[in-house]
């Protein structure tokens, strides 16, 4: 249970996104429930996916830039046996067979080898059915028109990739088999593309049957609430129970404790002279907190000048 935060409606709320809604639709519902226009999310989830969607509220929406690059963790079901045109269970089946007619089983050793081949830094081509923009239009808009657009591969990092389904896999009903996997990856990774590439390692079509985000940065599924629960809390005036303060929201950043005069300077966007600290890297972002621990803003550290330059200043609600 988190500590209640009562300093107005600003901070973060972690929603357990249901299947069938876009991330934008979740934001729209939250705006209506909370009665706050300034709400945004920190990382899109596909409509069929569920799990952690971090919403930033009020002035804390300015903190999104410090969260969007956070690593993510997923639990997914990879369906081996055939691919789909979307890379997930919502798409149209693309027929494909296993390596040979009599090779319908994949051993745990083959599965591990395929997992290992995709760990670490790899390159992915964004799927056509994605929200990535090219020429000002989202790729899925082209896909719905039947237009294939050339996409550049991008580097992503697959930090952890493991099978949760034990033993061998045998293709059974409809020539398919399900493998549950856990993935920890860098921001911008497409799990649908990872499933397709995993299938290619085994010589078979594959797609994502189910997808759940279990963590986004430091926020976990255990900290999330449903939209229905959000509505209950809002009706009872108890949103503070689930609202993370701005300071908690970016707790992964190191912090500087400010005096009253220093806090006032930061509020006016004035650079802060600091004592050089070996643990800080040039260009890193730092939380700037007042004497009571409230977040005043975020600054960028210049090692050569020994100053912190305010990047974002958080106001009062």
Q: What brief labels describe this structure?
A:
317 residues; alpha+beta; Pseudouridine synthase; Archaeosine Trna-guanine Transglycosylase, Chain: A, domain 4; 5-stranded mixed β-sheet; globular
Describe this structure in words.
19% of the residues lie in helices and 32% in strands. The protein is an alpha+beta fold and 317 residues long. It folds into three domains: 11-70 and 217-248, Pseudouridine synthase (2-Layer Sandwich); 72-216, Pseudouridine synthase (2-Layer Sandwich); 253-313, PUA domain (Archaeosine Trna-guanine Transglycosylase, Chain: A, domain 4, Roll), CATH 2.30.130.10. Strands 1, 2, 3, 4, 8, 11, 13, 14 and 15 form a nine-stranded mixed β-sheet that branches. Strands 16-18-19-20-17 form a five-stranded mixed β-sheet. A hairpin with a 2-residue loop joins strand 9 (133-134) and strand 10. The longest helix is centred in the first third of the chain and has 12 residues, at 23-34. It is globular and about 70 Å long.
Summarize this entry quickly:
With about 325 residues, this protein is of the alpha+beta class. Helices cover about 20% and strands about 30% of the residues.
């Amino acid at each position: 249970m988190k500590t209640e935060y009562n300093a107005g409606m600003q901070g973060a709320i972690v929603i357990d996104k249901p299947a069938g809604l876009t991330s934008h639709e979740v934001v729209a519902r939250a705006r209506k429930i909370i009665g706050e226009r300034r709400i945004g999310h920190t990382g899109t989830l596909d409509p069929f996916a569920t799990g952690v969607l971090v919403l930033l509220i009020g002035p804390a929406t300015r903190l999104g830039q410090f969260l969007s690059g956070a690593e993510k963790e997923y639990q997914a079901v990879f369906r081996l046996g055939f691919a789909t045109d979307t890379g997930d269970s919502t798409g149209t089946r693309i027929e494909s067979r296993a390596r040979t007619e009599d090779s319908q089983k994949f051993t745990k050793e083959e599965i591990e080898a395929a997992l290992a081949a995709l760990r670490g830094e790899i390159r992915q081509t964004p799927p056509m059915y994605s929200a990535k923009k090219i020429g000002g239009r989202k790729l899925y808009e082209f896909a719905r028109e039947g237009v294939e657009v050339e996409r550049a591969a991008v580097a992503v990092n697959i930090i952890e990739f493991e099978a949760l389904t034990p033993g061998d896999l045998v293709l059974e009903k409809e020539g398919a088999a399900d493998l549950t996997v856990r993935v920890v990856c860098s921001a911008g990774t497409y799990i649908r593309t990872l499933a397709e590439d995993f299938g290619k390692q085994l010589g078979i079509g594959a797609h994502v049957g189910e997808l759940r985000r279990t963590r986004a940065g430091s926020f976990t599924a255990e900290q999330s609430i449903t939209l229905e629960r959000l509505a209950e809390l809002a009706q009872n005036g108890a949103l503070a129970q689930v609202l993370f303060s701005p300071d908690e929201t970016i707790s992964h950043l190191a912090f500087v404790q400010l005096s009253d005069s220093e806090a006032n300077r930061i509020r006016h966007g004035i650079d802060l002279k600091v004592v050089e600290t070996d643990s800080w890297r040039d260009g890193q972002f730092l939380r700037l907190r007042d004497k009571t621990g409230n977040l005043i803003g975020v600054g960028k550290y210049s090692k050569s000048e020994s100053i912190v330059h305010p990047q974002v200043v958080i106001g009062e609600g």
